[in-house]
Design a protein that fits this description.
Number of domains: 1
Number of strands: 0
Structural class: mainly alpha
Distance between the termini: 45 Å
Radius of gyration: 14 Å
Mean pLDDT: 82
Oligomer: single chain
Order of helices and strands: HHHHH
Helix content: 55-70%
Largest sheet: none
Strand content: under 5%
Number of helices: 5
Low-confidence stretches: 104-111
């Protein structure tokens, strides 16, 4: 697990829009390197999405970070899964005042 792996996660192929938020990559890096707890990393990773005006728009990039970590950093799989479990336990965020498209879009609005 190199620094370059995490840098690439924020800008794959040099395209910033295709990568995760730098705070998400840094949160995962600190956690996998043993510098933070899963709870601290979950907070760092979830904050950019929770604070976004359009939380669903960026979720594919965040899930891409976890997808690539699970595939490309196999020695870290147990820690990544533990982190995902902590993220799952976070309180739901009130998204009623936010634009909702992408992965969080309400299916009822499409009807």
């Amino acid at each position: 697990m190199t620094d370059a792996w995490f840098e690439n996660a924020t800008s794959p192929d040099g395209v910033r829009e295709d990568g995760c938020h730098p705070r998400e990559a840094h949160g995962l890096e600190d956690y996998l390197r043993g510098h933070t707890t899963a709870e601290q990393a979950a907070n760092d990773i979830a904050t950019p999405t929770e604070e976004s005006a359009d939380p669903g728009d960026h979720l594919p990039n965040l899930w891409g970070l976890f997808h690539h970590a699970l595939l490309e950093l196999p020695d870290t799989q147990p820690k990544v899964i533990a982190l995902l479990q902590v993220l799952q336990k976070r309180p739901a965020v009130d998204l009623s005042e936010k634009k909702r498209t992408g992965a969080l879009q309400d299916d009822a609005r499409q009807l």
